[in-house]
Fold this protein.
Amino acid sequence: MSQGAEKDLLNSGESKTGARKKDGFFFWAPRMLTLMFAFLLSLFALDVFQEQNGFWLTIVAFVVHLVPAITILVVLALAWRWEWVGTVIFALLATVYILKTRGMFVIGTYILISGSLYLIAILFLISWIRNRIRTRHDTVEAG
């Protein structure tokens, strides 16, 4: 990557004074999208309350249906600190979902679930690359 391209990439996350903004788009977008995706998955767990099971069976079914959303939140907790972890795990989850459920749903389901996970993975990748470039850039300036 050329120095001009690196500088443009770096400046897109800086304030007018040159200080890095922690509230930049590529920092927050994957994190907020992951929270919204976990919320979407948790909505699917609400269907257990329409069944005519007893109280405890309904609670157990509800918790079991929340496992995917909880898994997404655990991955988010790891990705919050290590963006490359989010990139890898979210891309793997998207791929595994497609392979495990191949042919079971209409294409829109795969776009919604796996497409969201791939988008989140790509945004975490961009955030990770930006941070690596910024760290290298700051190290060169300090040295």
Observations:
- The chain has five helices and no strands.
